[in-house]
Amino acid sequence: MLSASLSDVATSEGNVRRIKWTREVEDLLGRSFSGSKTSEPEWGVHWTMGPEWASDLDNPARVALSILLHGLALAAKVPESTMLGVHGTGDKLAAFALVQELKRAPAATPAMEALRIMRSFAARALCCRLPPGWKDKALFKRGDAVTAIMGALHAKHANRPHLYLSMIAADPMRQGQGHGGRLIRAVLRVADAAGLPIYLECGGERLKGLYAHFGFELVGDAPLEMKGDVDGWPTHPIVYYAMIRPPQSTAAAAK
Q1: With bands split at pLDDT 50, 70 and 90, how would you rate the model's confidence at 250?
Q2: In terms of DSSP H, where are the helices of the chain?
């Protein structure tokens, strides 16, 4: 979680605000990462979904599963994170980011995070908020595999003080309007003020190029794969990239 002073730096411009975890955040994240006919999915999520859900990105059941998975991820991460948001027309959330200030890469699955996930899952079950497909064991095995791959990349490439940009997403209906860029620049301001590098993982060439535009450098990669997975899945290699943006001086960052 960012200190009060660094949070002030993040929200100093670009209509960036600190926000709280709400269903609106879950919905935006789930829809953004699920993808659609007009927007690319987050490739780690696409791989996790598996072949059953791959053919129709606009399938409401696929989107609902994505919202569930990311709601559980938020339950794990939010208490130690700062959430930043940008709002669009009608004060609707247009994009959000989840940022952590870390002394080192975290353990693979901290016990407290696992407990939060179980509590959140149980609460959703009691409220009948589990979508069709939630019993797909392969889906959750792939989810665990993605977590392990991300954890290994994180430990190898950022096991020192840094900012971790663990999630960033824009509403698919508002992509291309600069909302995500405002959040990235907010995190850059924080990193430069704190003198810390920023670490993130991403999937796909488009996102790798996007982050390179903001000064992130490729430091490692790993294929998304799982022993015993369905034959022929994925249909093409999917790679996760580890990227770091070194801190810059205030003068350099302003250019």
Answers
A1: low
A2: 4-10, 23-34, 43-49, 60-77, 111-126, 137-157, 179-194, 205-213, 250-253
Domains of the chain, start order: 4-253 (3.40.630.30)
Asked whether the predicted pLDDT for residue 254 surpasses 70, the reply is no
Among 90, 86, 216, which residue's Cα sits nearest to residue 162? 216
Q: Which two tokens stand for residue 30?
A: 């789930």
User: For residues 216 and 200, what is the distance between their CA atoms, to the nearest angstrom?
Assistant: 9
Place of tokens 């900012």: 163
- Is residue 99 within 8 A of residue 2, CB to CB? The reply is yes
Tell me the C-alpha distance between 202 and 243, whole Å.
8
Please report, as a single letter, which amino acid is at residue 82. Answer: T
Asked whether the whole model's pTM tops 0.90, one would answer yes
Residue 96, strand partner residues = 85, 169
